[in-house]
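Attaching the record inline, Q. Sequence:
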Amino acid sequence: MAAIDGVDLFSSTARCSMAKDTTWLAMGLAVYAATGVADNSPAQFMRFKRAPKGERKDGEYMDRYTAAVLTASDGVAAGTRQDKSGDTLQRLLEEAGFTVVERTAVADDQARLAAVLGRWAGDARIHLVLTTGGTGAGPRDVTPEATRQVIDKELPGVAEAMRSESLRHTPFAMTSRQAAGIAGDTVIINLPGSEKAVRECFAVIRPVLRHLVDLVCGHTAHGA
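Structure, as predicted:
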């Protein structure tokens, strides 16, 4: 058996991980060439997962109910606005039993947002990524485009359920374009940018978040 650190290189898990690394390396090269941002350098995208998420590694349990919060906002990224929606999202996740292990704010730029999402999707600690902001119809609202650049498959029902609930509160919800999907074994869901809308939409998706994480981590049995 060909292995690295005990991981069978011919297993489906390893093949999937290496295929994803090729995608993220290509993305990293493109972003680095376009922006020159050191944090988006190719080295940041070369991540080989040596332990499946939620499994034991060196005798230590890796909790699969972990999350990251990404705020898409020019003002928050520049430090001129308080990240109230990000604060709310982190609090709601923690109340739902998730541990928030990463959080950042990025300007409304598709390449930079996709770079962060791709890096987090390749991080063995992160199983759920929730974003806030950049889901409207404005020219700099590009979070759904960045999300679709990273995910392997969409979860249209999740986005539809959030929009349906938001429409009960405001007709402007029909202009929201949030996306949701799966990147490898990480769930990525876009939420709107307002603090009120974050609370409304999170209440909709909260009942299925743990189930989604269980599924993408391979725990597909009913009641797992």
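The helical segments are 12-35, 74-78, 84-95, 110-121, 143-150, 156-167, 195-216. Strands lie at 3-4, 7-8, 56-57, 60-61, 66-72, 99-106, 128-132, 153-154, 180-183, 186-191.

More tomorrow.
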